UniProtKB/TrEMBL annotation:
InterPro entries: ADH-like_C, ADH-like_N, GroES-like_sf, NAD(P)-bd_dom_sf. The keyword Zinc applies. The keyword Oxidoreductase applies. Residues 182-307 form the Alcohol dehydrogenase-like C-terminal domain. This is Alcohol dehydrogenase catalytic domain-containing protein. Residues 28-142 form the Alcohol dehydrogenase-like N-terminal domain.
Length: 346
């Protein structure tokens, strides 16, 4: 079988990331993608700084990265994929055999092989490498004219589109987005593309509030400024839909206060458990509090929206680094006072 030698960004454990030389063997029936660009996610930062992301602990060297795109390097004869074609790579690999997959809830698959994850042992390597072997179904072709730095956002864009599907129709609705980091900023753009009548962003950071406006928010407020939030929490709330993307306990509690009776709160930010939550107010106002986790079939939709320019993620980009400077890139991405989304170029 043909072989490729390539460089990969490998985390060995806490504060230990290297450029490792790897070898890839592939058959005539397999798909190989030459990676062009990837985005650093919070889980990549956790693997670097802590040696784990939640309960997923690094037990052996892991190639990180699950937000990436590239070009087809090799495809089977007769495949719909063509060598040289630009593709976004879906990092989600559900088993398609469990009860959740059969029910169309692949994001709940207990056997999910998610790229760049240490959940299983052996780990599932990610896409921060010069070359990666994937399945044909993971590859979504896109227009040659779209820059790789835009399509590197396909995975987080799929996350926010799924959250909007959980929320229901936003047409004509008043929408609050709490937390204007990368996910919150993309949620703002997605809400605007989905017909929201008014979008307000809430974030402690002036830098993030500025990005929120550039991404389509009508207003961006500082939740620490009581006067800024008073009009939205008076009269039992203002918003039809609240998208909570920060995961902060105080923000989660405020989502109930700002949402009007009969409204919907979609929890996107992971946060920490346990937390204090205003259950009584949620109950009295008959607010639906819904969780949103990853995505199902929204990845293809995300590629289409980015391809057509319905969402332009470039205001979120705060830095780009060559893969050889992966440690510098991870450190920059972890500094939330300076960075939103840091990209790695291959």
């Amino acid at each position: 079988m043909p072989k490729l030698e390539f460089d990969a960004c490998v985390v060995n454990g806490k504060k230990d990331v290297v450029i490792g030389r790897r070898e890839l063997e592939y058959s005539a029936e397999e798909v190989v993608v030459k990676v062009e660009c990837g985005g650093i996610c919070g889980s990549d930062i956790h693997y670097y700084y802590e040696g784990h992301a939640g309960l997923s602990i690094i037990k052996h060297p892991l190639i990180i990265g699950h937000e990436f795109c590239g070009r087809v390097y090799h495809a089977p004869v007769g495949s719909r994929l063509k060598v040289g074609q630009k593709v976004a790579v879906n990092p989600s690999q559900p088993c398609q055999r469990c009860e959740y997959c059969y029910a169309g809830k692949q994001n709940a698959c207990q056997n999910m092989r998610f790229m760049g994850s240490a959940q299983f042992n052996p780990h599932v390597h990610g896409g921060f490498a010069q070359y990666v072997k994937v399945t044909g179904t993971q590859c979504i072709p896109y227009d040659e004219r779209v820059p790789a730095e835009v399509m590197a956002f396909a995975e987080p864009t799929a996350v926010v589109i799924h959250a909007l599907n959980v929320a229901g129709s936003l047409v004509g609705k008043k929408v609050l987005v709490i937390g204007a980091g990368p996910i919150g900023a993309l949620a703002i753009a997605a809400a605007k593309a989905s017909g929201a009548a008014e979008i307000v962003a809430s974030d402690l950071s002036e830098r993030c509030r500025d990005i929120a406006v550039r991404m389509g928010a009508d207003t961006a407020v500082d939740p620490a400024a009581a006067d800024d939030m008073a009009r939205y929490t008076a009269s039992r709330g203002y918003f039809d839909v609240t998208l909570e993307a920060s995961g902060a306990e105080a923000a989660i509690a405020s989502s109930v206060l700002a949402t009007r009776p009969g409204g919907v709160v979609v929890q996107i930010g992971m946060g920490k458990s346990p937390l204090n939550f205003p259950v009584a107010q949620m109950l009295v106002k008959e607010i639906a509090w819904k969780g949103s986790f990853r995505f199902i079939d929204e990845f293809t939709t995300a590629v289409t929206w980015l391809e057509k320019g319905l969402i332009d993620p470039r205001p979120i980009i705060s830095g780009q680094y060559p893969y050889s400077n992966i440690e510098e890139a991870l450190i920059a991405a972890s500094d939330k006072t300076l960075s939103s989304k840091v990209l790695v170029n291959f």
